[in-house]
Amino acid sequence: MNYSTTELILLVQRKEETLSLASRNLKEEASQMAKFLQDLLTDLRNAIMEKGFQNEIEEITFFKDIKPYILGKLIYYNKVYQIEVGCPVSNGKMYYSYFSDRLQELKNDFIEHISRSDLYRYYRSGRVDRDEIYFRLGNIYYNDVRESFVFEIDTGFSTYYDYKVAVILANEFLYEYLNSKKKQQLSAAKILQNKEVMKDIAWTNSKNALIELIYALYASGTISNKKIGIRQIALLFQILFQIPLGDIHHAFHRMKTRSNSRTCFLDHLKFSLEEYMDKDI
Question: Which three-class secondary structure string do you get for the chain?
Fold first, then answer.
């Protein structure tokens, strides 16, 4: 293969970052990421069918680490798209309830189908003694497998167990996403209910200025080292200042085509700070 595990993971993460900045909403981002991951898996399959693996270690690494990560992300983004499309409202109690229900469904599925499996315990323990059984081609024991789809597996590009690991990873990605949605709503409710805290806090510049600041903070990795996305940062500022920002991605794309400075608010901040510093000299 032309890519190492680290290189492929970084490739996926860079694409996620690019689409997070460019997409209009999470539905669009999830849809485009799913297409990217499908194409990436197709390219990897074609390369493997053409060249094969150099040795057993490379084969095991691919089916234990690389393919499950990419396929897990694909399963995750497909599910995120379905969840976002099915969301009945954009805020409030129904919104909170909707994501709480999806989170509970995920937990129930984990308990019933994942946590009790031998493969889950093996994978999470970091063991390697059965890697040649689980993560090499041609070792599927059909009589030991309950799912009927095993008979439709592409035996040249799957060990069956690589899919099972992908499901484990997708479950973890989804848990983080749904838990974040739930926490956002709880935090927003608590803050907004405290009128004494909120009464003197207000954003007194334009919405575009705030959006420019949000994108700058995200792009610089200033908040959580980019571990949270644009929408989460925007939600924090909307809660803090009680100001609806609307379609932040559309506003951002307009900023990119400004005829004068594309960062006029940040330029203003720099000028204001330097002027303030000069007063103390």
Answer: CCCCHHHHHHHHHHHHHHHHHHCCCHHHHHHHHHHHHHHHHHHHHHHHHHHCCCCHHHHHHHHHHHHHHHHHHHHHHHHHHHHHHHCCCCCHHHHHHHHHHHHHHHHHHHHHHHCCCHHHHHHHHCCCCCHHHHCCCCCCCHHHCCCHHHHHCCCCCCCCHHHHHHHHHHHHHHHHHHHHHHHHHHHHHHHHHCHHHHCCCCCCCCHHHHHHHHHHHHHCCCCHHHCCCHHHHHHHHHHHHCCCCCCHHHHHHHHHCCCCCCCHHHHHHHHHHHHHHHHCC
